[in-house]
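Technical note accompanying the year-one report. For the benefit of new consortium partners, we illustrate the data format agreed upon in the data management plan: each record pairs a sequence with a structure-token string. No post-processing was applied to the example shown here.
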Amino acid sequence: MKLMETKHVISDTIGSLPEKERLVISLYHYEDLNMKEIGGILGITESRVCQIHAKAVMRLRSKLKGMVAG
């Protein structure tokens, strides 16, 4: 898969996440905010941000593995 195709697939997969998971992924990985800063923005605890991030990463891995295998 070419780099541009890979970026497009990842972007589409992130877009398919539930809103809060998508937001946490975007703020953490694209805006370079830490978990505490994201928690302040969303009005949730740092530990909850960490839980949401972990769940989002698991979903992304699962969906991307399915695409590669399929």
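Partners are asked to follow this layout when depositing records. The CA atoms of residues 2 and 8 lie 10 Å apart.
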